[in-house]
Amino acid sequence: MKNTRDETLETLVQRFPALAPLSNALCAAVASLEACHRRGGLVMACGNGGSASDAGHIIGELMKGFKLRREPDAKHRAALLAVDPDGALAAKLQEGVRAVCLADAPALVSAVGNDLSWEMVYAQQVFALAKPGDVLIGISTSGNAGNVVRALQTARALGVETIGLTGLGGGKMAAWCDILLAVPETETYKVQELHLPLYHALCAMVEEKLF
Q1: CB within 8 A of 30, min separation 6: which ones?
Q2: CA distances in angstroms from 76 to 41, 95, 155, listed in the order given
Q3: Average pLDDT, stretch 92-113?
Q4: What is the sign of the dihedral through the CA atoms of 90, 92, 97 and 103?
Q5: Cα 86 to Cα 79: distance, rounded to the nearest angstrom
Q6: Nearest to 149 by CA among 175, 182, 167, 112
Q7: What domains lie within the chain, and their CATH numbers?
Q8: Residue ranges of E strands in the chain
Q9: SS3 181
C-alpha cells in the first residue's frame, strides 16, 4: 500500500507536472525538517513581500495541525491535565514543529534595518537564534533577495541547514542552499503560484512523518 506521503507527492505531480523534477529535492526537504524536529531544533523561514507571507504560511502549517489532528503526546497530555484537570487544554492544544517566521517581528526588523542595514534584518535574527542542526527556509522568487542571501550565508556559517524556494535557476541563493526548490518560472506571480502547492506538499509530508 502507498503511504500518505507517496500519495501527496503523486497528487502534487499530477496537478502540477512542472514540479515533477523537484520530487527528490522535496523529499530531501521533508527529511531535513523531520530530522530537525526530532533533535529538538528550530525551523526558521524568511522572505520579502509575498514571499514573507509564504514564510508565515509555512510556519503556520508546521506549528499546528494542517491536515491531521495532532493530539498531545502522553508526556504533554499528563502535564496539561496536571494544571487543568477539566481537560480543556489537553482537548484543544496540538503538537507542533518548533518554528518561527523571521518576517513576523516588525519592531526587530525595523530596528535592525535602521541601526545596521536592511540587508541584515534576517541575518541578525539567524545569528541570534540559530544553533547547529536548525533549518532555515529562505524564499525569493528571483533568488536574489539580498537579505535572504545574507541570512543563508549566516546560517551556513553557524552549521544550519538551508532550504531555498526560488524561481528558475535559483539566483544568488543557489550557492547557499543545501536543498534548492527552484520552480521553472521567472515571473514573480507565476513563481509564487508554484511555491504554494510545493510548500503545502512539504508541510503535509512532514506532518504525516511526525504526527
Answers
A1: 5, 202, 205, 206, 209
A2: 18, 9, 31
A3: 97
A4: negative
A5: 13
A6: 175
A7: 4-68+96-210 (3.40.50.10490)
A8: 43-46, 99-101, 135-139, 161-166, 179-182
A9: strand
Say if pTM beats, i.e. exceeds, 0.90. yes
Question: For residue 159, is it left (φ>0), alpha (ψ between -120 and 50) or beta?
Answer: left
The grid coordinates of residue 46 equal 524568511
**The pLDDT value given to residue 3:** 62
Q: Measured between alpha carbons, how far is 198 from 207 in angstroms, rounded to an integer?
A: 14
Q: Give the separation between CA 187 and CA 43, rounded to whole angstroms.
A: 28
Among residues 138, 132, 176, 143, which one has the least CA distance to residue 44? 138
Q: What percent of the chain is predicted at pLDDT more than 90? A: 97
